[in-house]
Amino acid sequence: MLPYSEIRSVIVRGLKSAIDIPLIQLNGGGKLPEGSFMTYNFPDGFGGEGEGQPIFTQQGDKQIRQETVTFTVSFLSYADTVDDSLVNAMKASDWFKGTGYHALKTLDIVVIDIGEVQNRDINIGEEWERRHGFEIELRATDIVESPLEWIEQIEVTKG
Question: Suppose 96 and one of 25, 100, 125, 144 were both cysteines; which one would form an S-S bond, judging by CB atoms 3.0 to 4.6 Å apart?
Fold first, then answer.
């Protein structure tokens, strides 16, 4: 199983420190913060199609299944001005190029792509919501342990 809680914790704590604004989960419920803030989301979930074939090994009485998987994390920077939104999104993107890259590697998670920061402003009624966003793609090894099943005895007959 991928260490979702640890991945989320490294990203949230690290980015909060780097960009110095609130970082909240998109559609997580609750009241939105005042002023500038950033959201994150795992839009595609985890554990989809892997890259290549899984590897099966045995350790003692356990079967270990390992498979390389990729997943995406999406970020949106909200602010009252276009400039603040853009700067906060660029700071967050830069975090994944250095400190964040190394922090995620401690969990055996590799940043394989950092998308460009794009304007994602939207008009809601007569108001504009100023926001910039980007996605990152991560690679990890999904490891699943299960009991090893043995065939103790089999009867062979001629057919």
Answer: 100
Predicted TM-score (pTM) of this structure? 0.82
Q: Are 115 and 134 in contact (CB under 8 A)?
A: yes
68-77 pLDDT, tens per residue?
889 999 999 9
Average pLDDT over residues 124-131: 79
Confidence bin at 130 (pLDDT 50/70/90): confident
Q: Closest Cα partner for 47 from 20, 65, 29?
A: 65
Inter-CA distances, 45 with 9, 18, 71, 87, 113, Å: 16, 25, 7, 28, 17
Question: 135, exposed or middle or buried, with CB in 10 Å at 0-12, 13-18, 19+?
Answer: middle
